[in-house]
Amino acid sequence: MSVLACLRTAAVFGVDACPVHVEVDVSFGFPHFTMVGLPDASVRESRDRVRSAIRNSGFEFPAHRITVNLAPADVRKAGASFDLPIALGILAAQGIVERRHIADLVVLGELSLDGSIHATRGVLPIAAAAKRDGIAGMLLPTLNASEAAIVSGLDVFPVASLVEAVRALNEPSSLAATTIVPRPARSPSVADLADVRGQLLARRALEIASAGGHNLLLVGPPGAGKTMMARRVPGILPPLTLDEALEATAVHSVAGLLTPGTGLLADRPFRAPHHTISDAALVGGGSQPRPGEVSLAHHGLLFLDEMLEFSRHVLEVLRQPLEEGRVTIARAARTAVFPARFMLVGAMNPCPCGFLGDTLRECRCTPQQIARYGGRLSGPLRDRLDLTVDVPALPPSALTMAGGEPSSSVRARVIAAREVQRARHSTDHIRTNAELTPALMARHCRLDARGARLLDAAIIKMALSARAYDRVRKVARTIADLAGADEIAADHLAEALQFRMVDR
C-alpha cells in the first residue's frame, strides 16, 4: 500500500522564484525518511524538524517508509521554507489533511520543534511568481503575510503553527483570505543637510549627483565633513516610486532583511559597508548566490567611507555594476542576476596622513607615498565616478556660522529635476540621466558650437577618456535640468567640467 500527496511551493535563485512540487509518498516498509530532488544540507535537516513538529503538535508521525521528492530535480533546493509543505504532505498522505484543499495553494514556512511557524525569506518574489502562474493563493507564516500582500490579486492565508495550518485546510470555511495592509518598512530619520557648515561646492555636488543619479567622490582631510555630508544624501533623494519600491523590497526579501510584519520599503536604501568587506559580500555570491551590498543599495545609495582603505580587488569588482546596473553571478547549474542600479558616494583622504593641501596642518607624506596611496583607485574606476570634489578643512570662523540650506529645499529641486527626466525618458526605459546610453545622449545631450569647442579643449587639457567625455555630458544634462533649461549651455558644461578633477 502506498499513498501519495502533492503540494506546491517554490525555491528562490537570485531574485527569481522557481516553482517546486513537493511529492510525499508514505508506504509500508522499514521506517525510513528519504529526501530526493537535489536538496542541500539545510533542506535535508528538515527531516528532524518535521518529525518533532508533527509529534509535538499532537499528530502521529507514520512509522513507515517516507519518500519526499522535490521536483524539478535539476534545481538545487536551499533554506528551511520547505518544512511546512513537507509536514503537510506527510499529514495529507495519512488522511489527516484533506488533499483536495492544498492543490491550488503555494505553501512555505519554517517549522520549529514545537510546531510553530517562523518567517522565511524570499516571500515577495515567490508571491509575484505565484500570481504570474495563476495560483489562487499562498499559505505562509503570519510574519510574512504583509510582504505577500504587496502582490495584488493574490489570496494570503497566514498561519502561526502547524495545528493552525491543518485546521485551516480541513475547514474550508475558515480558509478565508485575510485582508492585510502592509506596513511600510521605514528607516531611521535622516539627518538634515542644514547641519553642514560652509562647503558650498560640495553641497552643490551632492545636489547634482542626487538629481541625476550620478556617482560622487569626496576628497578632503579628516574632519572636513565628508562622512557627515554623505550620510545626509538620503534626505535629498526623491521618494521611491512603486516600481522602484517593489524591486528594492524584493532584493531585501531574498536577503532576509525585511522586518517581519512590514511590507514595501518606504525609503531609499542606504548601505555603508566597512572597508574590511570581501568582494563576495560587496557584489554577492556564494554556492547559493545571495545579494551583496551593491544589490541591497538598488535604487538607493552605496557609501564607501575611507574608500582607499578597501582592498583594490574589492573596488575593482564595482566596475560591472556601475556600468551595467546589475550583477551577474555564474554557477555551474545556472546564472543568477541581481539588480544593482545604485548611486555611489565615496569619501577619501588626499594622502596617507590626510593633510595634503590643508592650510592648517602640514602633510608629512613623501611624493612616492602620495602616488602609491592614490594609485589604489585605478584609472578605470575613477573614470566611472562622475563628479569629484575637494572638501577642504573649514577655518575656525566657519564652525560657528549658521547652518546652510535645509534638506527639504534641496530635495524639492532634486524632485523637480527628476520629474523632468522622467517625462523626457518616459519611452526610453530609463529613470535618470546617469543611465543615458550613447544613442540617447546623441538625442538629449546635444551641444551648441560654443559648448562643443569648450569640451574639445577640455578633452586635450584634462586628458579625458571617451567614458569621461560621455559622463561630463550626462552631468551637464543634469545641471541644465536643475536650471530648467531645455538645452545644454556652455555654462552648464563648464560647471560639469570643474567636477572632473585632474588625476592627482
Topology:
Elements: E1 2-13, E2 16-27, E3 32-36, H1 41-44, H2 46-56, E4 65-71, H3 83-93, E5 105-107, E6 110-111, E7 117-118, H4 123-132, E8 137-141, H5 145-148, E9 155-159, H6 162-170, E10 183-185, H7 200-212, E11 216-219, H8 226-230, H9 242-255, E12 262-265, E13 270-271, H10 279-283, E14 284-285, E15 290-291, H11 293-296, E16 301-304, H12 312-316, H13 319-324, E17 326-330, E18 335-339, E19 343-348, H14 367-374, H15 379-383, E20 387-390, H16 396-399, H17 407-424, H18 438-444, H19 449-462, H20 466-482, H21 490-498
Parallel strand pairs: 3-4, 5-8, 8-9, 10-12, 11-19, 11-20, 13-16, 16-19
Antiparallel strand pairs: 1-2, 2-4, 6-7, 14-15, 17-18
What structural keywords apply?
single chain, 504 residues, alpha/beta, Ribosomal Protein S5, domain 2, Rossmann fold, Helicase, Ruva Protein, domain 3, 3 domains, four-stranded mixed β-sheet
**Biggest pleated sheet:** 5 strands, parallel
Into which percentage range does the β-strand content fall? Answer: 15-25%
Could you name the CATH homologous superfamily of the largest domain? Answer: P-loop containing nucleotide triphosphate hydrolases
By CATH reckoning, the class of the largest domain would read: Alpha Beta
- Stated plainly, the CATH topology of the largest domain is called Rossmann fold
